[in-house]
Amino acid sequence: MDMFxxxxxxxxxxxxxxxxxxxxxxxxxxxVPWGTADDADRALQAxxxxxxxxxxxxxxxxxxxxxxxxxxxxxxxxEIGRLLCLELGRPLKGAVAEVRRAADLLxxxxxxxxxxxxxxxxxxxxxEKVLVSREPVGVVVAITPFNYPINLLVFKLGAALIAGCTVxxxxxxxxxxxxxxxxxxxxxxxxxxGVFNVVTGRGSEIGSALIGHRIPRKIAFTGGTEAGKKIxxxxxxxxxxxxxxxxxxxxxxxxxxxxLDVAARAIVNHAFANSGQFxxxxxxxxxxxAIYEPLLARLAxxxxxxxxxxxxxxDVAMGPLVNEKIFxxxxxxxxxxxxxxxxxxxxxxxxxxxxxxxxxFLPATIVADADHGMKVMREETFGPVLGVMPYDSDLEAxxxxxxxxxxLAGFVFSGDVGIALTMADAIEAGSVWINDIHRSxxxxxFGGVKESGIGREKGRYGVEAYLEYxxxxxxxxxxxx
Length: 481
Known about the structure:
By secondary structure, the protein is α/β, with parallel strands linked by helices. Helix 2 runs antiparallel to helix 4 (92-113) and helix 9 packs across helix 10 (292-304). The chain is globular, with a radius of gyration of 24 Å. The longest helix has 22 residues, at 92-113. The protein contains 14 helices and 20 strands. The relative contact order is 0.14.
């Protein structure tokens, strides 16, 4: 599959390609161009040319096109979801659901776009008006990770397009096919040539070329914190705007008065979704000592029911990890915890034998008796490993929860809503869930504090990140006859 530039499928001039493999089997699915700085320039030039036209399209028309694009995504969700299952390994049902959920976000952004408004400031001077308007920031570079390649792209794409910006996207090396397929679908749905472009290649080459180029005015990135810091530093050389949604090491606090059945189910479902490969998953649990062992038993019971296998198989809850690096990081945390005295209640070892030998399969792993000297309680895991430790006082739980450079999400379970809300206020995070865990809504802001990022995505908050203010001073004269 080629890159998508200016409404056409395009190979790299160098002719270099990279294989895309199925992480469940190791089989080559397809190849994509291994693009260069020249390809980055071509895509950005196309986006810049399209910007002059797209920004002038009335927002109502942009919204109409975006709604049509969302419908096209739903119609193609089976096709795109199949590619996503192949390149990521996530169970097919979840892959299709990601595409459809991303289409819903396109619709939300379209509705928010038609509510963009400016201001007419009151003036004490006769013959003067001051207008405050909103304008698109310009060409946007969207750099996305492997774990939710469609949804996390639409976090950026939907907001940028309705704001009047054009986009060049660079998907992750492991999962480019679903993003390329999406580009074709949106173009067929009526998104004009050059408005949405997709290039593929190594981040250190084509990614850096995109960020350092003179054309784009904003970089939107989801990924690791260290990569985000490098992107921010490079973007600062030309004062580009940035939205950075970075790493997480998210805590859950379970008090003795919580409903343990609800807490265990919610924590396991969230911690091990997508094989633990997402940033705001529950990474570590602090359980009040009185209910520590009962909660561990419930967590282990729920985790033990999660089946692992090829994403195309029936009734599979978890697929493989996407590559050896991700697997090695998760497994290193298990080894570290065991060496320091932790108990492994479930999982803990790579699955082998038969089809398991072809991919990086790791079952849901519960690490009991963890502490802050262990990597699982301090470093982002990005895999199906969950650390659990006891605590005695509420103040201790909050101190532990905040003892991290990250601040993306937190979770509290308690029968006392007043205490739960007080804990939520004290947790340093961009989002906090109380007494259950569900998907983040499309109409409220999502993002982190501390080293978990800069800016917010989704809803009107996401659209505003792609707009600039302009102030116009008007002096006029008129004579009434």
